[in-house]
Amino acid sequence: MIADKLVQEFKTVVGGENVWTDASDLHVYSYDAAVVDPVRPGLIVRPTTVEALGRTVRLCNDNGLPLTVRGAGTNLSGGTVPLPGGVVIVTNGLNTILEINEADMYAVVQPGVVTAKLAAAVEAKGLFYPPDPGSQAVSTIGGNVAENAGGLRGLKYGVTRDYVMGVSFFDVEGHLVKSGSRTVKCATGYNLTGLMVGSEGTLGVFSEIVLKLIPLPAHRRALMAVFDSLEKASETVAAIIADRIVPATLEFLDNFTIRAVEDFSKAGLPKEAAAMLLVELDGHPSQVEEDAARVESLCRAKGATSIRMAQDAAERDRVWAARRAALSALAQLKPTLVLEDATVPRSRIPDMVTAIQHIAERYDLTIGTFGHAGDGNLHPTILTDRRDRAEWERVEKAIDAIFDEALAMGGTLSGEHGTGIAKSRYLEKETSAGTILFSQRIKRAMDPNQILNPGKIIAVKE
Q1: Last residue within a domain, chosen from 185, 215, 245
Q2: Is the pTM of the predicted complex or chain greater than 0.85?
């Protein structure tokens, strides 16, 4: 319980209309999109100026209040689940695109800017911001940077960290720290920008972010390839990459996911297909057309039963909208949905798809598999009911098995969802005891009172 006097201090800093203490409001901010237990905070604070943000951070530290920063709450690893009685800082009051520089191709934004809003704003000027997490319609840039979010275009264009040129953030004492620049090259001081990307609010609180933009692709071509087996589809992914073709997107959906998405979106997907690939190429028109022909040839050689090229932008957009609806479609089928993002080297995609099938059979679970197959990032999605204790025990064992398989193939625990609290206990499996110790030392030095999103990524012992 936060004392009334302290609540009043927060109101003085951000305005009474931007502080919430009602039980219903606290409940809304007690969970995110991860399947972890909700935790009720003690206070919700919404700064609307950079100055107020810094003062809020300092007030939390001075009073030993654990602080969790939250954008849209789409986090899938528990990174925005607060601590009991702590403070949640909501960033949607800092939602201004401060600058879009067409000459030097960068944007400067506040952390609460919605990803899709930025993408549309720069596209209107003939520029392109490629990172496109599935939640982009609601997710915020601050959250994307904190989690190093990926998306469908990661294969060709990379992930959020590849577009962060600089950040300004408040340290735990409320001092403004600036790192990076608006220039293409910057070798000044420590690479604090790199340290902050993916730090999940455990080292500082973003106030401003500088993002690289690139020219908008001149031409696009999309196709859908249908297969009568998962193996053929996954082998085709490996074949496309091996042939040195780099699509903008290369997505994989199994039959269970196809049927769920089609029932949800009515986009005309082939419900009888065992698996399908969605491929989009972009760039110079002649290169795109040449690569599209090569992809079509590879799909046929690997056993595609049908291939359909999108005839216009409307058809292309309809299919991609359906793909982006995969999570929503699957979420309607069972009370609990566990979305993982085990990632393997691209050449091991066929092996990982097979491993997920075997895990589903071994633990008698329904697992729909889709994802960014072109960059090795699969989303095995377990449909279950957490209230069924026996089944939930099997789910937990299946998750362990999925991670073990990914790591054994030289992969990683998370391609784009972050570590949070959902995956922190597995971290040493992928790294080392020395890595955990080194990370703890950084955390302890930057946050001696352990108030910045404590317990996320790593636990720091006193």
Answers
A1: 215
A2: yes
pLDDT in tens, 329-377: 998 999 999 999 989 998 899 999 999 999 999 999 999 999 998 899 9
CA distances from 374 to 157, 167, 280, 317, 345 (A): 12, 30, 11, 19, 10
Whether 259 and 347 share a structural domain: yes
Distance, CA of 280 to CA of 371 (rounded, Å): 14
Dihedral pair phi/psi, residue 77, rounded to 5°: -130, 15
Residue 314: C-alpha distances to residues 271, 311, 319 (Å): 21, 8, 9
- The domain that holds 372 is classified in CATH as 3.40.462.10
Cβ–Cβ under 8 Å, residues 113 and 95 = yes
Question: What pLDDT, in 10s, does the model give residues 188-240?
Answer: 999 999 999 999 999 999 999 999 999 999 999 999 999 999 999 999 999 99
What number of other Cβ atoms are within 10 A of residue 181's Cβ?
15
Classified as helix, coil or strand, 199 is: coil
Report CA-CA distances (Å) from 420 to 109, 164, 187, 457: 24, 21, 30, 5
- Asked if residue 440 is part of any domain, the answer here is no
First and final CA of the chain: distance in angstroms?
A: 23
Which runs of consecutive H residues, i.e. helices, occur in 124-210?
141-147, 154-157, 192-196
